[in-house]
Amino acid sequence: MTFRRIVFPGMLNANQIAFGGEILSFYDECSGIIGLNYRKGNLATVAIDDVSFTRPVHSGDVMVVRGRVVYAGRTSFSVRMWMDVEKNGEPLGPAGGAVYHYVALDEAGKPAPVPELLLETEEDRLLWKEAQLSRDLKKKRAELLKESVC
User: Fold this and answer.
1) Residue 81 pairs with which residues in a beta bridge?
2) SS3 11
3) Which CATH class is domain 2-118?
C-alpha cells in the first residue's frame, strides 16, 4: 500500500525539517492500516525497529510511504515501511523507513492467531528472513539484558 502526506510548517523542528515524531506518527498510522487489512481484527503495536531518517524532509515536500507485511508468526506479524520524498511531483529519493511489530488480539485482549503469510517471490523470502533475524536478535538482546540485571 502507498500513502502520501504533505509536510506543513507546523510539522517542522527547530532545524526547519520534518520532526522525526511526525514521520513516526505517519508510519504508525500507515502500518496500522496495513496491519488491519492483513489481520482483519484487533491488534497492538509491540515494537518499532530499524527506524532511519536518511534525507531531510522540508515544508512543501510530500512524504510517500509504502509498506507491506513481511513476517507472520503464530500471533504476531511485522510491517516494513519505506519512505520516499517528492517535491512538486518530482521524486527526490529515499528518506527512511522502519519496521513495526504487532500482536493480534482477540475480543478479550489476549493474543490471537494471524493469517499465514504467503511468500511468493524471492523478495518476499528475503524480507521475511530479514524480519526473522531482527526478531531473533531482539529476543537475544532481551535475554542478555535480563541476565545482566538479575
Assistant:
1) 67, 98
2) helix
3) alpha beta
Q: Which three cell numbers stand for residue 75?
A: 500471533
From the list 83, 115, 85, 111, the residue with the least C-alpha distance to 99 is 83
69-121 tens-digit pLDDT: 999 999 999 999 999 999 999 999 999 999 999 999 999 999 999 999 999 99
pLDDT score recorded for residue 122: 97
Cα 79–Cα 9–Cα 22 angle in degrees, nearest 5: 20
Helix ranges, the chain (H): 20-39, 122-149
CB 48 within 8 A of CB 101: yes
CA distances (Å), origin 111, targets 33, 75, 79, 118: 19, 6, 18, 21
Residues 24-30, mean pLDDT to the nearest whole number: 96
Would the pTM count as exceeding 0.70? yes
Residue spans per domain, the chain: 2-118
